[in-house]
Design a protein that fits this description.
The structure holds two protein chains of two kinds.
Chain A (H helix, E strand, L loop, with lengths): L1 H26 L19 E6 L14 H10 L4 E2 L8 E2 L2 E8 L2 E6 L13 H17 L14 E8 L2 E6 L7 H5 L20 H7 L6 E7 L3 E6 L14 E6 L3 H9 L5 E3 L4 H8 L4 E16 L15 H14 L2 H7 L4 E3 L14 H5 L9 H10 L6 E8 L7 H14 L3 E8 L1 H7 L7 E6 L27 H12 L3 H18 L2 E14 L21
Parallel strand pairs in A: 1-10, 1-11, 14-15, 14-16
Antiparallel strand pairs in A: 2-3, 4-5, 5-7, 6-7, 8-9, 9-10, 11-17, 12-16, 12-17, 13-17
Chain B lengths: L1 H38 L3 H6 L5 H11 L5 H13 L13 H36 L4 H15 L2 H15 L11 H8 L8 H8 L2 H38 L2 H8 L4 H38 L5 H10 L3 H29 L6
The chains are: A alpha+beta, B mainly alpha.
Chain lengths: 550, 347
């Protein structure tokens, strides 16, 4: 027995050793779990390690139309016009100037001596090449449907006048948004000696050719894994030189890993996208700083004017009653409660143009609810009674279950509660996957439904033109000729103050019609280690790494 | 002599049938994946739905050819893969063969680590359980085995991260290496994609240590899954060999119990492990999807998850086809070895 116990112990020791060898022996190979942060400390030479859950579709600006790709392009490509820090409005960047020389021709003069980081000259020919290939690739489908060429819908053609002058011929005259378009995902200028005129140029070829002219160049690139940026000493755009010596961007899939890494100091900053709960947790962590700024994303409820209760194609069609239903819904929505659900990562939105952009107002705030942004059930009841609507009104609301984040179901559950608590509505709520939702929503599939919008550029018009003329991309049968006329005016109005005034009028008009009910505006959030300073999150909605230092 | 020819003929016929079965297996899998992916929608709508107008969306879908009859798309796809052309991914414009080469190595590395863990943990514990069979220690080990293979990887992964990364701060949260090490390896002239080999190529022991350190938790999470199977299998087989004549004979000659287990009984007990390894390859690859996602281990499983979310038909089909080939070939090899070792299999 003593022998058996002895051998048993030996076997047990051997077994336990087997388990231990996996963990301890390997763990013993290094003394530092974080190991690889190459950050040097202090001054302009500091290395910033940033984490993100973004993903890159393509470095080539003609092959991508998504936040992750544009985040990279923003750092390494130059734009003719760009937004300086702290402003939503654009200024000449690679351009020396830009103006309408006739109503349909926008002429851009380039700065002298522009060069790509590889030494190639950046001339008007590169600019023409850039926009010609965007249109050609979009038209041929060589972008696989992924490119941003639709932003050039108003561009007829591009001509080179001389080495420093380019003429953009526009279909619609005096398009005041064109400068903004030039700063958008369709606007990065590319090197005609490197990029293909009619196909997407592979990421590795672009990096190898060092075909960059932005604030940074890419010195090491592994797509969706790790990118190393170093300052481009030849950058001459509107932005300042980088305050750091290097930025390494690490890509994550799981936001909880991103959170843990920024919390434990393995990375210096986490930008996009931490969950609201993670951000709430990190806000109380003394080792990190949470910085927020205005975001361009908006969320809203859409009414289909044909199929909503009392809509135009319903047996009991009545425009006045239909409007009363929309107004009552607007009276009952509690945006603060919705914002709380998102732990403040979305803020209440009271108009169609989000806060921070030139021309934005709070048109719905005074018109509906208690007049201060809060809900008012009595007012909703009076509105419906005055229109002769019998309550409760049955409202079928559909939300997109997999496109606007995991909390969409909770958000619309809360809206259902807010509407039903009043006793004025009975809400049938359904969640539909994006693929089906995208087909049904614009084809009269849902009487009332969820939508969200990510802007292409930071101009108020990007929240008006796509939506309201003849129902816009929503296809909800909304039509107000006065709104259409005002939108045409604001697009062509060169005087900024007059333009802002018109934009305000448009919001006031639509707020009365309630084509849609704006709910929330997304905030930009960055979490940084305590030693990191300089994060700028502004209404340009572009996050530039160059301001970060430590 | 005649019996020997029959035997060899039976073996070859068996191997030929098993080999030919690889093709319909892969064909069926590729076909099922093709049609299932189409049922979930198209990648353009997944990426741009809600951003572009319905007309623009339809135009782009048309240009990409996703609105053609399914059978046309299917036949075109089959034609391409017969020619070895797996296409280019929609979401990141990479040739599928590049994706397979780039990320397959990472998955292979993880699978090797996991098998190492499974062997080191499962086999000795199985022997121990057999040795102390029917005692409380054996019961504990059997329960442990069930816990190993019944615990979902995403749960055990999170638990490991919580304990070793968040509470004890001794192991990294995620990734295959820290940023500095990854940059060092990216600068290599001839990277293999297997981080341990690349780390050795840098000649810096700190980079090697860093890479190994990052492998510990993913290897444990995935390896323990198989370790549970190994533990129970070895235990059962070792107990089985205890009742055989040659063990009785060895015991009667005075061979000690410890030596009986570790020298005489365990070797025959390990033969079924060969077969099980074949079966476990599919389990490991399935588990790799969860492990790689949990630990940001950028291998095929991680990429598969990413491509599935984006409805990237081309990428998903390519990766699944490769996984199908791996599982089918490994099973064929295992069947062949089993047939060679044990003549009963081929009849």
């Amino acid at each position: 027995m003593a022998h058996a116990l002895s051998t048993g112990r030996r076997l047990a020791v051997a077994s336990v050793s087997g388990v231990a060898v996996v963990g301890l022996a390997l763990a013993g190979c290094s003394s530092s779990p974080s190991g690889g942060s190459t950050a040097s400390s202090g001054g302009s030479g500091a290395t910033i390690v940033l984490g993100t859950t973004d993903s890159i579709t393509a470095l080539d600006p003609a092959g991508s139309y998504d936040n992750g790709s544009f985040a990279v392009q923003t750092q390494v490509f130059g734009f003719l016009f760009d937004t300086p820090y702290g402003s939503p409005d654009v200024e000449p960047s690679l351009a020396e100037s830009g103006e309408f020389v006739d109503p349909n021709t926008f002429e851009v003069k380039l700065k002298e001596g522009l060069k790509f980081a590889n030494g190639h000259d950046l001339t008007a020919s590169d600019v023409k090449f850039t926009f010609d290939r965007q249109q050609a690739i979009g038209a041929s489908g060589a972008d696989g449907g992924n490119g941003p060429s639709s932003l050039l819908a108003n561009l007829d053609s591009t001509d080179v006048k001389d080495d420093l002058t380019v003429d953009f011929h526009l279909k619609v005259a005096n398009d005041q948004t064109f400068e903004q378009v030039l700063s958008s995902p369709v606007g990065p200028i590319v090197d005609e000696e490197v990029f293909s005129p009619d196909a997407i140029t592979p990421d590795d070829d672009i990096v190898a050719a060092n075909a960059f002219e932005g604030q940074y160049v890419i010195t090491s690139y592994k797509v969706n894994e790790l990118i190393q940026y170093k300052p481009n000493p030849d950058y001459v755009g509107v932005l300042d030189a980088p305050a750091n010596g290097e930025v390494d961007v690490k890509y994550y899939t799981d936001s909880s890993n991103l959170k843990l890494d920024v919390q434990s100091g393995n990375i210096d900053a986490a930008y996009r996208s931490l969950s609201p709960q993670d951000i709430a947790d990190l806000s109380s962590d003394p080792n990190v700083t949470v910085t927020t700024g205005p975001g361009g994303e908006i969320r809203y409820i859409v009414f289909n004017f044909n199929t909503q209760p009392f809509g135009a194609t319903q047996p009991d069609a009545d425009p006045a009653k239909a409007l009363a239903v929309r107004q009552a819904v607007a009276d009952l929505i509690d945006r603060d409660a919705l914002s709380d659900l998102y732990q403040g990562t979305y803020t209440p939105l009271y108009s169609y143009v989000p806060d921070g952009l030139t021309g934005a107002n709070t048109a719905l705030k005074g018109l509906y609810g208690d007049g201060n942004g809060g809900p008012d059930a009595d007012k909703a009841k009076q509105t419906l009674a005055a229109a002769g609507v019998t309550t409760p009104v049955t409202l079928n609301i559909t939300y997109n279950s997999d496109h606007y984040g995991p909390l969409s179901g909770d958000e619309y559950g809360l809206i259902k509660d807010q509407l039903e608590t009043s006793g004025l509505f009975t809400v049938n709520l359904s969640g539909v996957q994006n693929v089906q939702f995208s087909k049904d929503a614009p084809n009269d599939g849902y009487p009332v439904f969820q939508r969200g919008w990510f802007p292409d550029y930071s101009d108020a018009d990007n929240y008006l033109t796509p939506f309201f003329p003849e129902g816009g991309f929503l296809h909800n049968h909304y039509d107000n000729p006065q709104v259409d006329e005002l939108i045409t005016q604001e697009v062509g109005e060169a005087d900024p103050s007059k333009r802002a005034e018109i934009i305000g009028q448009i919001q006031d008009l639509v707020a009365k019609d309630l084509d849609t009910i704006p709910l929330l505006q997304g905030a930009q959030v960055i979490v940084t280690g305590k030693s990191v300073t300089g994060a700028v999150l502004d209404a340009s909605f572009k996050f530039r790494y160059a301001t970060l230092s430590k | 002599m005649a019996s020997g020819r029959r035997s060899h003929g039976g073996l070859w016929r068996y191997l030929l049938v098993r080999f030919l079965l690889i093709f319909p297996t892969i064909f069926i899998l590729v076909t099922v994946v093709f049609f299932l992916m189409r049922m979930t929608g198209d990648p353009i709508t997944a990426a741009q739905g809600g951003k572009l107008s319905p007309d623009e969306l339809a135009e782009r879908i048309h240009l990409a050819g996703y609105d053609r009859p399914l059978i046309v798309q299917y036949l075109e796809y089959l034609g391409q893969i017969v020619q070895g052309n797996f296409g280019t991914t929609y979401t990141d414009h990479l040739a599928v063969t590049t994706v397979l080469a780039r990320y397959g190595t990472a998955t292979l590395e993880l699978a090797v680590y996991a098998l190492l863990v499974a062997g080191i943990v499962g086999i000795p514990l199985g022997m121990l359980a057999a040795y102390i069979r029917d005692k409380w220690g054996d019961a504990v080990l059997r329960v442990l085995a069930i816990v190993f293979y019944a615990t979902p990887i995403f749960f055990s992964g999170l638990l490991f991260k919580l304990v070793f990364s968040t509470w004890l701060h001794v192991l990294p949260v995620a990734g295959r290496a820290s940023t500095g090490s990854e940059l060092r390896m990216q600068l290599l002239a001839h990277p293999t994609g297997i981080d341990l080999i690349d780390a050795i190529q840098t000649g810096d022991p700190a980079v090697v240590g860093d890479v190994l350190l990052h492998a510990v938790l993913p290897a444990l999470a995935l390896g323990l899954l198989t370790a549970g199977v190994f533990l129970r299998l070895v235990r059962t087989n070792v107990i089985g060999t205890f009742t055989t004549g040659y063990i009785d004979s060895a015991r009667s000659r005075g061979v000690g119990e410890f030596r009986l287990v570790t020298k005489h009984a365990y070797k025959p007990a390990l033969i079924p492990i060969i077969t099980v390894i074949g079966l476990q390859v599919a389990m490991l690859l399935g588990g790799a999807v969860l492990t790689e996602t949990t630990f940001e281990w950028k291998g095929l499983g991680y990429q598969l998850n990413h491509y599935l979310q984006d409805r990237d038909f081309v990428a998903v089909q390519g990766i699944v086809a490769l996984l199908a080939v791996i599982v089918a070939v490994v099973n064929f090899v295992v069947d062949a070895i089993a047939a060679l070792v044990d003549p009963r299999v081929r009849y």
